[in-house]
Structure formats: structure tokens, C-alpha cells
Design a protein that fits this description.
The complex is a heterodimer of chains A (about 350) and B (about 290). By secondary structure, chain A is α+β, with helices and mostly antiparallel strands. Helix content of chain A is about 20%, strand content about 35%. Chain A folds into two domains: about 230 residues, P-loop containing nucleotide triphosphate hydrolases (Rossmann fold, 3-Layer(aba) Sandwich); about 100 residues, Beta Barrel (OB fold (Dihydrolipoamide Acetyltransferase, E2P)). Chain B is about 70% helix and about 0% strand. Chain B is mostly helical. In chain B, helix 3 packs across helix 14, helix 5 crosses helix 8 and helix 8 runs antiparallel to helix 11. Chain B has 14 helices and no strands. Classes of the chains: A alpha+beta (about 350), B mainly alpha (about 290). Chains A and B meet through strand 6, helix 4 and helix 5 of A and helix 9 and helix 10 of B. The complex binds adenosine-5'-diphosphate (ADP) and magnesium ion. The site of adenosine-5'-diphosphate has 10 residues of chain A, from helix 1.
Amino acid sequence: MADLALRDLVKTYDKTEVLHGINLDVHDGEFVVFVGPSGCGKSTTLRLIAGLEEVSSGTIEIGGTVVNNMEPKHRDIAMVFQNYAIYPHMTVRKNIGFGLRSSSAPKIQKEARIDEVAQLLGMTDLLNRKPDQLSGGQRQRVAIGRAMVRDPAVFLFDEPLSNLDAQLRTQMRLEIKKLHQRVGSTIIFVTHDQVEAMTMADRIVIMKDGYIQQVGTPSEVYHTPANTFVAQFIGAPAMNMIPGEITNNGSIQLETGGLIDAGLAARSGQKITLGVRPEDLSEHAPASFLEGSIAVREPLGHETLIYVNTSVGEFVAKADGRHPPDVGATVRLGALQENLHIFDAETGSTLA
Amino acid sequence: MAIAEEIRPTTDALLKTTAPKRPANMGQIIRWGLLFLGGILMIMPIVYMISTSLKWPHEIYNLKLIPDEPTIENYTFVLQDGRFFWWFLNSIVIAVITTLCNVLFDSLVGYTLCKFRFPGRYIIFIAILSTLMIPTEMLVIPWYLMSQQFGWLDTYWGIMFPGLMTAFGTFLMKQFFETVPNDFIEAARIDGLNELQIWWTVAMPLVKPALAALAIFVFLGNWTAFIWPLIVTNSVEMYTLPVGLSSFGDEADVAWELIMTGAAISTIPTLIVFLIFQRFIIRGVVMAGLKG
Ligand SMILES: Nc1ncnc2c1ncn2[C@@H]1O[C@H](COP(=O)(O)OP(=O)(O)O)[C@@H](O)[C@H]1O
Ligand SMILES: [Mg+2]
């Protein structure tokens, strides 16, 4: 177990810079999730930490030691790959024990460790099977076991759940989280799925185009997103964005016609984007600022998504699951002041 | 942690599913006919080889399949002839060592060219491939001159050295290593194995079918090699089987019945090699099918 620090980390592939100065501190025992759209540099960051790629500039520290020039095997890390990377020609026992091959511990001790890990993962009965006799979830667990067996300082997971079906993914998500609580090691987990990020992370690192957009607890990135990208990436369906402008008396004049008292007189005349989450839009809010007719309903059981057509585009809101308004009905929606997010229309960053 | 077992089709189940039976039509008859013809063409030389090996010398130019007076005299003669034993031994030693070397070196080089990025990698690969375009007949003279200078004439090393690595084998192995996912290699690197260990414990077991195919090719190629062993050897004890067999009889009269007897005996090792390695090839094909 150890701290991890990334300082001004830059990675360049053939003159193309794909990471532009990543700064991050991961504390001992923390579960950090990197999330972002495909191609934003999550895997690259992970591979730099693992030592599978060379750092172009900046430093990586594990447990206070700069590891830039250290071989992967000396960094005291373990990595779980998306397609598991468990060896088809070896039994589960051999696969889990693979990480111990280069250890000088006596054989009995190694075998005991493998049994211990297998028990922790509930795989004791499967130790003599080959990977092609295992289900997807079981293979995933072998891969995790193989990483655990060495008791590394830092665990790296690169989209380990994306090959599993939805049900299994939810289950493994929980298992990995429980495992973390039991073993208490430092974990860096990469995913493109914001639900995975929200449910598992102690802290989320949201990335886009090789830059970190925001670092924070799930609650922080959800309730106080740093910019429109984070706001729309976290939460499903994505946050509604309504263009508007700040008036002379500090209110927000929305293009939908709505007027919101905001007390932002200092910024009068500025173009803004108002963000409201679908779950915060309501017909019962004190003041409404959106009016339109319902184009589509998506019943989800406990709630119904309604897509509202307005003069400036379509917005989505969550309505009651049992008694949703009818398609074609006109609704007037508003939200509580505390649930409004105001962004600079040009830069996209949150207005203080 | 009860997880619904995902049932994968087993190899057996896949192999058992056969196409539904349909009445034979014209196309099928033609197809079977052509296959039958091909089969006959392939098998006739072998049949004649065995037939001739069972004939007396005066009968060999009689093309009858069943000899009038079959005899195993040729077999006892060849097997009791000391020279045949030496040739057989020479061929075994040479074919086995060359096969082992090819499996080892071709896959080492193929692996390196496939999985490592280094300057000049592409040029080296092209250079290796381009040697495929030079026929043995063109190479034997330089090889001979070289062997003469180094004193390799009439030695095992002299017979073997040109074939210890082949461009074809290197190419074959490089292509097969492309099927080994990089994740497998990187995972092993993180687990602390050095590059040689990764090659041996991770990559090599995964390309067994290719290794088996390569082993068969190389073994057969060397077992039947003629021109170079003929040129590089002088003494009768250093001959390989093909060279030795061709020397049966004297200048005026080729002893076909003895040559055919020797040839028949010499097919046994190739059969053994094939039977040993073909399992891997077939299993490899089945595995590849299951992946998708
Ligand atoms: N080996 C490589 N050579 C060149 N470009 C690469 C290489 N690996 C990744 N990239 C580029 O770096 C960017 C980030 O990739 P990656 O870290 O894999 O994204 P993510 O894991 O977030 O989907 C992408 O634009 C990708 O094309
Ligand atoms: Mg990735």
C-alpha cells in the first residue's frame, strides 16, 4: 500500500501529445476512478503508472519514490486488463500463482497464498480448471486473483468490467468494492462508464482530451461540476443545458423565456448556460422557466423520462412512474434555486 | 457470489454437429470423383514403392502391382547392410537437430520482430524474407566454398548449417505471434518475468500449432534433402539416407528394389513425426474456431 503522485505528466506518441500535464495525488488505500470518453487518455495514464509506456516528461511517484525509470516489476503494482490476460494454457491455480513466479518465497508459502486468494474470491473449487472452462465473471475473478496474490502497493484496473453483461457487471462492481474494503489497498480503476465511476470511487478523476477536468468525490462531481463537460458526463440522462444571459438586475433571462432571480448583477450582460438535471426539473417548483409539450415518454418503472419540446430545443425531465403526464400535454417545469448550475457560455466553466 | 454458469460449447459438441444429409447430386459426384482421382495420384507412388521393394531384381521393370514372387529379401539385405544403418542415423541426427534449432531460432527471431519496436526492424524483416527468393541451387556453390575454407566438408555441421534457421519459419512464426495478445505479454512483464521467460512460458505455448507445423515442414525438408548433403559429403559413412539410397547399385545398374526398400523404411520416421505433431495442429484449428 502506498501513495501515488503524478506531477505534470506528459505523454507524446510520435509528436502527438496525448496527455498534457496530469497532476494527481492518490492517497494510501484510496479507490480512485478515472472516467472519460474513449480516447481521452485513461489507459495511457494507467500504462504510464504501470511502466508499460515511457513518460515523456513529468514524474510518477509511488510511495514517495520516483519510479519513472523503474521496470514494471520493481514498481510494486499489479494490473488487471480489459480482456483479463489470463493464460489459456494454464490452470486457474497456475494463473493466480503466476505473479509469484519471480518471488523467492518457499513453495509451500506460495501455495498457501494462492489458496488464501482463491478463498477470498470464492474460487477454491475452480483452481484446477482451465480458463476455457470458466464463465466470464469467473475469468474476471481469476485476473483479479492474479493481481492480488502479490499484495501490491497499487492495483491498476483498465476497464475490467466492459466485457461482462450488464447483470454481471453490477455484481462484479460490488465485489470489487467489497474486496477493496477488505484488503484496503490503493486502487486506480479506469472506466468509460459514469455509473461505474459513481458507484465505486472514493474520488473520481474526469478526463477529456488528455486533460483532467475535475477531481472530486462522487457527490462533488455530481452536485458541483466544474464545467459543462463534467456536468453532462456525470448523471444519466445528461444534464439539460439552457442558453441564457444575465440581465442588468442580476437575473437570468433564458432563451426559453423564463426569468430566474439569481443575484448576479456583477456579471450583467454575460452569456451563460443554465444546467438543470432531469431529476431536478419539476412541475411543482416555485417558479417555472421551461414550457413545452411532451414529445416522448420513456417509462422506467419507478420513474418516467419525459422529453419536452420547447422553442429552443428538447429537454428531458423525470416524472412520476405511476402517473406521468400524457404525450402531447403541455408542461411547465422549474427547479429549486439550489439545483441550478450556471456556466459561462464561452468557456463552459462554472460561474462562482 | 453465485454466478450463473455461462455454458460454453465444448469441442466435442462442435465436432459432432454434422451437416444434414442430402441426396447426392451431380456436383457432389464430380467433386468426389476429383477427390478420388487426386487420392489415387497421391497414393500410387507409395504403392509402387512398397510393391517394388517386395520384388526380385528381374521383376522390377514389370509394372504389375502384386509381385509374382514376393520376397522380403530386400529388407533383410538393406537392414543388414551397415551403410544403411549409418545413413539412417545420420539423417535422424541431422533432421532432429535442425528441427529443434528451427523451432527455437525461428520463433525467437519471429517473436522479436513481431513484439518489439526497434529501429531497423522492418528492414531486417524484409531482408530475411528476401532470402526466400534465392533457390538452394544457387546457394550450394558459395556454401561449398565456405565449408571448404572452414573445414566443414564431410561433417554433420557442414550438412546442417545452412538449414538451422529458415526465412520461411521465421515468417511463419512472426505471423503466428501476431495472434498472441499484447496484454498477455504486458501482464507477464508486470508480474516480473524477463523477456526470455515471457517468450518461453507465455508466447511459445500459445503458438504450439504453428510450432508443430513448422516442425513437420522442417523435419520433412531435411529428411528428404538431397542436393546439399550430396555435395558436402564425401565419405559413405557421412551420407544421409537420400544420398545413400541413390548410391545403391553401381554406375551401370541402379538397384531400384533396394532403393525402394530403403525409401519404404525411411518413411517410418516421417510418419511418426507427423502423427506426433498433427494433434497439435488439429487442436489449434479447433481452438481458433472456438474463440470467436
Ligand atoms: N501506441 C500508441 N501510439 C499512438 N497513439 C496512441 C497509442 N496509444 C494510444 N494512443 C492515442 O492516445 C490517445 C489516448 O488513448 P487511450 O489512453 O488508450 O484512451 P482511453 O483509454 O481513454 O480510451 C488516443 O487518441 C489514442 O489514439
Ligand atoms: Mg482505454
